[in-house]
Each structure stands twice: as structure tokens, then as C-alpha cells.
């Protein structure tokens, strides 16, 4: 009887983690290629603000998180255009302001006990059936969007002006990428928390680079490696009674180190064209 | 070898309408005037070269002509049915992005392998098809970029400093290749350069730019123009096409002359490395 229950929440956690990793990996490849790691961090740090706003306005939290993330992403792009401050300064200001603002706002909400730690570091074991559904929808939409935008996004990543001359609607594709990142952040928040989402995107992608000969291979491998990290992290956290989100990231990190310690001749190379 | 039948429609139509024209274009960025009432045109089947010192607004003019930037004033006209093959100034691809030359060539449009191989053969590098782009040398990359620009059979080739990052021997080869290709295909060429020696010999029209259009015309005319001589005092037509090397001055890494010749009453501009506008 107890075993059945146990299985149930573990399976829910595993499913949620696998779904998130399957999208975060391929998207992470773009984050790595476009040098957007800090950008991803900044946007994900603002997710907490979305939670606070969602609670205050009584709206769906996932929707609110997505909206706030998109808004912050657009604000960032607009501010970067002005070029008065260096990009990393701007990102730092926004990241930490958004995070602090989120924490302050959350603690202001009276009569509601928001588990701050759960938002900061994730609470995958508390994933309910409803959460599972919203992760599936958010992740599914993100994956579909990524597949649709794949070629123009890749063209943009290689050379933005060349892509524009060749007819890629640059602004639209960039907006699509923002929306994608926001969707993945909203889905991943419960799994690893706002502080660690970027890790789930960039570490698997960085590990996948060693095996990949094409962009597509790298993206798919990143998804698979991320899923392995989720599985290993979940097992480790259950085994050693450690917080699940950080354990997943530690598993991803161990994988990254392992991949880079392997001598080159042991690395299988996929035929690339 | 020959990629195209020279009697193809691209050359058959004899239409003197400019392929591309800027009419009274002005551009300001960050409070600085970059283009000041510039009017230029690019005629079909001609090589038009934009020259000018660093920071003269050459690349900005190209961006406006390509439609990448909106001019603050004036307008840009394109001929209907214009297909542009664009070769950007420099292309650096992150090592973390696994990308072969083949994949790079087909980023925007798919093409059968035979067509790609033929395209690379035309620019002399068929062996690079399956190489990672990051492994190419500067000269190889320029050739691959040229091959890519030619893939959709453009009637206008737009080249921004096509010989940048290529050694002096390779530069001559790149310009020779461009010249051959335009004779074969009959496409117009618009080229930006700050290197007069190699470029002016093959040009039909030269636009000398320094925020405003200093002078335009055939190379011989432009080189005799006082404004041109003020901007490029050491160049005369005898020097064009030949790399002269006198030992009364010093070169920096980029090949720029730093020490003044006697009687040269002007300040030399900084080297080409800083030119990215």
C-alpha cells in the first residue's frame, strides 16, 4: 500500500523531470550557441516575480510566470539596444533586481505560506497530476515552437545579417525564442527551481557537444543527456535524502566532467554531414 | 567546370535600370552623422566599388542598400526581381556549434549535394564540403562565403571587404575569382573596400565615400579627382594593381603605413582592424 503511493509520486516526479529535460536540452543548445547563458539566468530569476503576481491577481501561476518572463526578456532586448550600459551589467542589474523583487513580493502576500525554497530550488516531488498536465502542455508547445523555428533560428545564430538578407524575419524569430525560453522556464521552475533552470539547459548541451557533428545531433543528445541527469538525480536524491533539484544539477555536472575526461578516441562520433 | 551557361536569361535582358539605388540617403547613429545625403546607384553587369577611409560609412551604406538599416532620410530603390547574393565582411562561428560546410551552405535553402559540390568547385575548394566550418582558413572561408552567395543565382553580388583576413597573394586570387564570376554570370557586383590597389583595376564605377559622396565615376576619373587625392594621397593609377614597398616607412601588423613620407601634410587614419561600421 505504502509502496504504491511512493511509486506514484516518484513516477510523477520522473515524468515531469523527463518532459522538462527533453525540451530544456535542445533549447539549451541554442542558449549555448548564442551565448545566452546569462540571459537565461536573468529571465529565470524573474520567474519568482511571476509567481507573486499570479498569487496577488489570482491568476494561473504558470501563465503569469510565462508572461513575466517574456516581458523581462523583451525589456532586456530593448535596454540592450540603447547600449549605454554593458550587456553583462544590465543583465546583472535585472537578474538580481527581479529575484529580490520576487522574494520581497512573495513575503508580502499575507495569509499565504509560500514555500520560498520550493520556488528557488524546485520541488519536483510535490508535482501533482495537474502540474504534470501543465508541464506537458507548456513543454509540448515549446517543443513544437522549437521545431517550427529550428531552421530560421539556426540561420540567425550563424549570421544575423546574412539571415536577414536571405529573408529570415529576424524580429519574429527572436520573439519566438524569447517565448520559448519563457515557456521552458515556467515548466522547469517546479523541477529545479528558478536559481538552477539555466543549468538544466546549458550543462547537457555542453556535454552533448563532444559527441555531435551536426546542430541537430547536439540538440537531441542534449535532451537525452538531460533526461539521464534527471533520472540519476532523482535516484540520488531518494538514495541519499538530498534536495532533488540541486541533485539533478549535480548529476548533470558529473556527466559533464565524465564526458570531458574521456579520452578522444573513446568518444563515439556520429556520422555528420 | 563551368557552372552556368553564359547565354542564360540573367545576362540576356539588357535593361539599364539600376539594380539598386540610394536617393539622398542620410543616416545618424548615436548622434553621429554616418551618411550625409548620399545618392548612389548600382548598374547591372557592372562592378561598383565603394572606397573610402576607415569610418567613412562604407559598411553602413551597404547595410542601408541591403535593407538591413532604415535610413533616417531618403530612400532606397530596388529593381523588381532583384536577387542578392550577400557575402558579409567576416563570419566567425562559435566552436561550440557543430556545423559542416555542407550544412552551412544549405542553412537557408536545401540543395542537392551535386549542386553544392559544383558551387564549391567554382571557387576552387570542392574538398571542403564535409569539413567543419571552424577548421577553414581565412581564405577558404571567404571562398565558401562566395560560393554560398552564388547559390541562389543572384543578379547582384554584394561583397563587404571580400578579401579581409586573406593574405596578399590570396587577395589577388579572390578578386580574380569575383571578376571571372561576374563575366560568366553577368551579375552586377557591389563591393566595399578600403584597399584601392587591388580593387580599382577591376572596377567599372568607383564611389569615393567619406560620409558624403566625395566623387564618383570610372576609376581613372576618380583617381584624378582632387577630393580622392586628398583622401588617398599616395595612390596613383600606376600604383594600382601593384603592391609597392618602399622602405622609408613602417608597416604595422595589418599592413598599414605609419610613418609619414616627406611632404605629406596630412594625418594617416588608423588601420583597417578598427573598421567595423
From TrEMBL, chain A:
Gene3D superfamilies: ABC transporter involved in vitamin B12 uptake, BtuC
Subcellular location field: Cell inner membrane; Cell membrane
Keywords: Cell inner membrane, Cell membrane, Ion transport, Membrane, Transmembrane, Transmembrane helix, Transport, Zinc, Zinc transport
Chain segments annotated as transmembrane: 12-33, 45-78, 90-112, 124-150, 177-206, 218-238, 244-263
Protein topology in the membrane: Multi-pass membrane protein
GO biological process annotation, one example: transmembrane transport
Chief place where the protein resides: membrane
InterPro entries cross-referenced by the UniProt entry: ABC_BtuC-like, ABC_TroCD
Gene Ontology CC annotations of this record: ATP-binding cassette (ABC) transporter complex
Pfam families the record matches: ABC-3
Known role: Involved in the high-affinity zinc uptake transport system.
Classification via PANTHER family: ABC-TRANSPORTER METAL-BINDING PROTEIN, HIGH-AFFINITY ZINC UPTAKE SYSTEM MEMBRANE PROTEIN ZNUB
Similarity annotation: Belongs to the ABC-3 integral membrane protein family.
Protein name per the record: High-affinity zinc uptake system membrane protein ZnuB
Annotated source species: Thioalkalivibrio versutus
